[in-house]
């Protein structure tokens, strides 16, 4: 069953919908939205089990596609540019394939239409997500008094300071005054392998080639999420797809190189 998503909105003009990735929320994309709002009406929903949107017992791409269809319908959006990052990129690809009549342009940020946990290879990113969700579940937030304590706990296994700061944005205090995660940790942990494997080349096999709308993939050259070896498969699914590379950027390319990312986005629309 679909849920009604919390969202952030600004600007005026044609609809531009931004879909965040795993552990993300609308707040993470406001600085990017500010650079687009003079040309577009920008909508940034919190996906289910994230931000201030409802927690549910399941977290599938079909769930999120149903939520997004409801969101566009609720806001009378019929011709949207859709930008998705990471998990949000896979959602953007699935939604656009299911509802091409609602999509003006598709922009996919640093994710490929493939499984990241195939029989031959479990990607480092999947193992890191498993570690992160294990740590989130293990941390006893009721016994914690400060964000500094949370950071110290996470730092024992996660050396990347910027990653820890990003994760800690998902902490807030509940009505009783205790810290809790905004994201639905148990459900996301259970769903992780499907999140990282679904919306792959097999899923697209009876839908390709997709030529209904322009498609652009933007990748960080320091990231391993879209490799050169993935491009032929992308081109089978999206023969006319553009690939834009951003140097000196990893998976969080929009935060690491915001100006170059905006330039890439505007060249895609």
Summarize the structure.
This protein is α/β, with parallel strands linked by helices and 269 residues long. It is built from ten helices and nine strands. The chain starts with 6 loop residues before the first strand and ends with a helix.
Structural description of this entry:
- The chain is of the alpha/beta class and 269 residues long.
- It has 2 domains: 7-116 and 198-268, Rossmann fold (3-Layer(aba) Sandwich); 124-192, no CATH class.
- It is 36% helix and 17% strand.
- It has helices at residues 30-34, 61-74, 87-98, 124-138, 147-155, 161-168, 185-197, 231-237, 253-256, 258-268, and strands spanning 7-11, 15-19, 41-45, 80-85, 103-109, 171-173, 179-181, 215-220, 242-246.
- It has a 7-stranded mixed beta sheet. A two-stranded antiparallel ribbon has the order 6-7.
- Helix 1 (30-34) links the parallel strand 2 and strand 3 (41-45).
- The protein is globular and about 55 Å long.
- The mean pLDDT is 96.
Blueprint of the fold:
Layout: E1 7-11, E2 15-19, H1 30-34, E3 41-45, H2 61-74, E4 80-85, H3 87-98, E5 103-109, H4 124-138, H5 147-155, H6 161-168, E6 171-173, E7 179-181, H7 185-197, E8 215-220, H8 231-237, E9 242-246, H9 253-256, H10 258-268
Parallel strand pairs: 2-3, 2-4, 4-5, 5-8, 8-9
Antiparallel strand pairs: 1-3, 6-7
Helix pairs in contact: 2-3, 4-7, 5-6
